[in-house]
Amino acid sequence: MNEQVSWIFEVAVNDGELDNLKALMKEMVDSTKANEPGTLAYEWFISDDGKQCHIHEWYKDFPATVAHLTSFKANYAARLLSMCMATRFVVYGNPDSSVREALDGFGADYMSPLGGFVR
What we know:
Elements: E1 5-13, H1 18-35, E2 39-46, E3 52-59, H2 62-75, H3 77-83, E4 84-93, H4 97-103, E5 109-111
Parallel strand pairs: 4-5
Antiparallel strand pairs: 1-3, 1-4, 2-3
């Protein structure tokens, strides 16, 4: 069974918070890159007007996903959600109960694989 999990987390940036969001993003990206080898992709995208941010995350397996979510909740969730409002959260894959439990409270929509491939 494929244990990879990915998602797109979309947020609306609160007025006056873009610079703070950029600083927090750098902190989160640096920490994830240095401490979470099971993170396959961790990419942030911002709209031209700086009002919408999409975060693309991809994890190699369930333990890596839970490790990231545990760190996020402990160190970053409150700060991130004080700077922006979640607008959409779509999770891709077949996350097990440990991942779904860690995602509880974020309002995720789950999309199961139907077909295709990744190179």
